[in-house]
Design goal:
The complex is a heterodimer of chains A (about 400) and B (about 475).
Chain A: E1 12-17, H1 25-35, E2 37-39, E3 42-44, E4 49-55, H2 65-71, E5 76-78, H3 81-86, E6 96-100, H4 118-132, E7 138-141, H5 148-160, E8 165-168, E9 176-177, E10 188-195, H6 202-214, E11 224-231, H7 232-241, H8 246-253, H9 273-279, E12 284-290, E13 295-300, E14 308-314, E15 321-325, H10 340-353, H11 360-378, E16 384-385, H12 387-390
Parallel strand pairs in A: 1-4, 1-6, 4-5, 6-7, 7-8, 10-13
Antiparallel strand pairs in A: 2-3, 9-15, 10-14, 11-12, 11-16, 12-13, 14-15
Helix pairs in contact in A: 1-10, 4-5, 5-11, 6-11
Chain B: H1 5-8, E1 38-44, H2 52-62, E2 64-66, E3 69-71, E4 75-82, H3 83-89, H4 95-100, H5 135-142, E5 145-146, H6 150-155, E6 165-169, H7 187-201, E7 207-210, H8 217-230, E8 234-237, E9 245-246, E10 257-264, H9 272-283, E11 293-300, H10 302-309, H11 315-322, H12 331-335, H13 346-350, E12 355-361, E13 366-371, E14 379-385, E15 392-396, H14 406-420, H15 427-445, E16 451-452
Parallel strand pairs in B: 1-4, 1-6, 4-5, 6-7, 7-8, 10-13
Antiparallel strand pairs in B: 2-3, 9-15, 10-14, 11-12, 11-16, 12-13, 14-15
Helix pairs in contact in B: 7-8, 8-15, 9-15
The chains are: A alpha/beta (about 400), B alpha/beta (about 475).
Chain lengths: ~400, ~475
Amino acid sequence: MAQIPSSSHRPRLAAVVTAYKKYFHPQHVVDRFLDGYGWNGTYHHPPMDVVSLYVDQREGEGDLTQERADRHPEMKICSTIADALTLGTSKLAVDGVVVVGEHGTYPYTEHGIMKHPHFEFFEQITKVFRSSGRSVPYFNDKELSWNWDWCKQMVATSRELNFPLQGGSSLAVTWRVPSVEFPLGAVAREAVSVGYGGMGSYDFHGLETIQCMVERRKGGETGVEWLQCYRGDAFWNAWQQGVWSKELVKSALCRSSTLAPGGATFTSTFPTPDQLRTLVPDPVAYNYQHRDGLRCTMLLMNGLVRDFTIAATIEGHARPFSTQMYLPMPDGRTTLASFFTPLVHNAEIMFLTGKAQYPIERTLLTSGMLIAGVDSGYNGGQRVETPNLAEVHYQPNPESTFWRS
Amino acid sequence: MLTRRRFVGYSALASAMLASRPLLASGLGQESSGQHPLRLAILGSVYSLGSSLQDFADRFLVGYPWEGDWHMPPVQVVSLYVDQRARRAEGAPTGYQLAMKGTHLAPAGPGPTGGRPAHPVPQHHEEIEIPGDLSEARAHQFGFRIARNIPDALRCGGNRIAIDAVLSVVEQDDYPSNDRGQILLPTYDFFEQCAQVFEEEKHAVPFFSYGALSFSLPEAKTMVATAQRLNLPLQAGSAFPFTWRLPDIDVPLDAPVEEAVIVGPGSLDGEAFDALEALQAMMERRRGGETGVKAVQLLEGDDVWAAGHAGRWSKELLSSALSRSDTPLGLTVLDGRTQDLAAPGVLPQLVKNPLACSIEYSDGSRGTLLLLDGAIEDFNIALRIAGHDGPLATQFFLPPAPNQDWSAALAAQIEALYTTHRAPWPVERTLLTTGLLEACFDSRHQLNRRLETPQLAISYKPPSEPQYARS
């Protein structure tokens, strides 16, 4: 990761989040700025201060807002986003914005995506940027928006107002087991990720798992032409017919640490085809085509795994490239969701350097693929042409930004 | 007084029920075609779901994930000896009977190599109808012989050795403890019974014993000497040195390591051995290689913190090791927050019964194992290297149950022992860790006295290449 310039000035950050409760994304992200985290063999305190906090939903049990503010009196609880950014003045008074739009309770779209308020937050924040004639680096956890036009508009506005916008999934930056990077400039034929969770949420993580790797292929990212969702019998028929490579699925699964055993008295087996169908009652696949010919498939296999793995065919490699994006997950496996650590660390570098550490176009593309995937699923698995995503092309950061030190 | 030898089963002659079954083709299972697979005899204490024997034996029956593929070892399991079955069959005393005779039962302790089985074994039973015992189901599914005793496991019903390798997984079932609190695991007895057969037939095969060589260093030394005499590749140890690391780093070979601190949860008869092996696998790479240990002290309670204040273990290294943990307890459990566990006052609040194994190496370097139950639930190490900018720190990644893929990393090493007839790492490492653990028990027994350890003047060179999982 990039060297952090030393400076006596501590950037001041505004945090704008949905809800601040235990194990919600806002808690994971903002706590790391407030209380620090383990990094590179020491306990690291970010050289910056969260000076204001806007929490959109404080109702219900378990709200941690006041507890955090009490322990961190430098952080003011604000009732509006504008106030969090201006700190009672009329102008932008912070050096960076941390936005976490995940969690909370919001309505769903007709197709089943929760309408997280990333865009609404963005609008209010950039309104202050505009009225102040000044913009600051902007961290946006996870996807851009559930609405494609808004996704596109967010990226366009960040260009217009010339501020770094960085976000995406922690999957792209967490530990890898093994600790390997997709070779820059390699010719990729096909890639498959296997993960878990639901459509409209964890599909984003699976898509980012693939995209943070394949964007490094020869020529960089060229855009996505179409996408098709497979579920139920259509999924198993596609599996049988080889719509995606069974060999790559096997390679990915062999990187999983959470493969459900195939028999009641076993603890670690590779599932037979029959066991797979029993273990995974509701499988999901997003199969999609990049403009340069690369074919990718994102699989959600609830019941089979509880982690995210990837495998890819690379020209000139005798065996598939494969790894696990390791998520220390506080569902009994750990107590800390440490995959937020490299996400926050990359945000810190952006706040200190004023430069995004990875292209926002990655997140634009994956946000759009999520929307297309859910649409295709909603329409019975019809292929969705994606001219909007065919226009998203970009070059990766040649430097690796995943956690490895 | 009952001795452990009463439990071991030289006389486990009961039960003629265990005839060899024809090999069965299994969807899951052992490959029986192709090249001649190595014939493996498996010896163990208890074959129940969650036991170490089940974990490792299954690796050789159904394969394991390795280097991005599902690897089927070129191994055919041909026989299985389960001590629990044999002891029950011969009417060995139950835990209740032992208790009535005043022999205190070993406390349970969950170590990957040390402690209690994942599922308690019922004390009352009918002959060898043992609830949860998987031996017969596995024998049926994979077509191997359940042996009446250890020599029978090696000879598979014939007169001559009929196997090419031995896997021994001895773990706590209901073996008794001695007055120092050590569980009397019969690893030595298992090995000696094999060695006797090898000696009789002038033919020895590679032997792997999971965990410490023995609870007794003299016995462990005898095992190593016997192996050398019989030209028998012997290896023992824990999986911790071989599992993934977060981050993927090792001590540079020949680096001037001054001190190391490894921290995790557990007890002396549980995880301590695994942690000592992890520590030693990194320390042995220091400049000059391993030259042995001159003194050991086990500290408990407030003496652990006092030793930290006095600089007997490095607070900086503990802080560094803790920064690698994903499992801080206390306030993190309460509301998810990140915490600097090394901040003043935090650890003494969380940890009621801390343990420190303080190790003084002959070359002046130091190592400390801190068992801090209540602080964290994973194992992390930090080392100070002269001239190195800041500590070198990493987590020994233990993928969760049920898969426990750290055991696959060790299975690959065991397989290498069998196929190459060469020990992948010096058996002296495990000889030293075996002795270190015994010295900790001794120190505790002698009121936590610092003990000079001339018996641990064990020298060896480390393997030149890192051996942990990384590809």
